[in-house]
């Protein structure tokens, strides 16, 4: 498994601010795509160690204009962390573009855009993940750290499937 990453952006109001993470995963592209788009796979890797994402709380209408949502329970207090957004682009099994809405206020116009590009490398897949939007540099650093952990869990999960 190989990982590279970068961060970009100027000031907090710059909508081009964001980051990119590239991973080489030991799994075929079709399986990696399913891990992103099917609740029975997504439940196993999305989140931090110690968190749970019950499959019953995951909804995925994987088509342009379709919505997705998930409810994570984190820490010993089982703090509820809602996630939701829309699919902007779906090209199976190579590309997903989806939004992440403000979890406490779905009407907040400041959404994050996440792009997942999967390149077939035979028995491996290159996954390039980009996130951009309106977060501050500090917030992007935290989100990037969390996503790096998520993608480590994804790699571990795919190795077991």
Automatic annotation (TrEMBL):
Check the record and name the InterPro entries matching this protein: ASHA1/2-like_C, START-like_dom_sf
Please give the CDD domains that the UniProt record associates with this protein.
SRPBCC_CalC_Aha1-like
Residue limits of the Activator of Hsp90 ATPase homologue 1/2-like C-terminal domain? 26-158
Pfam families attached to this UniProt entry? AHSA1
The family note in this entry says: Belongs to the AHA1 family.
Query: This protein is called what?
Result: Activator of HSP90 ATPase
Native organism: Streptosporangium carneum
């Amino acid at each position: 498994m190989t990982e590279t990453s970068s961060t970009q952006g100027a000031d907090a109001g710059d909508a081009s601010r964001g980051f990119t993470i590239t991973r080489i995963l030991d799994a075929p592209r079709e399986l990696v795509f399913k891990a992103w788009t099917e609740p029975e796979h997504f439940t196993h890797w999305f989140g931090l160690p110690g968190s749970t994402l019950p499959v019953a709380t995951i909804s995925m209408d994987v088509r342009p204009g379709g919505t997705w949502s998930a409810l994570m329970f984190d820490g010993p207090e089982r703090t509820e962390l809602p996630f939701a957004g829309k699919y902007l682009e779906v090209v199976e099994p190579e590309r997903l573009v989806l939004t992440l809405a403000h979890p406490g206020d779905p009407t907040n116009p400041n959404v994050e855009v996440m792009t997942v590009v999967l390149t077939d490398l035979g028995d491996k897949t290159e996954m390039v993940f980009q996130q951009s939007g309106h977060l501050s540099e500090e917030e992007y650093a935290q989100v990037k750290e969390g996503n790096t952990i998520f993608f480590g869990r994804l790699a571990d999960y795919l190795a077991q499937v």
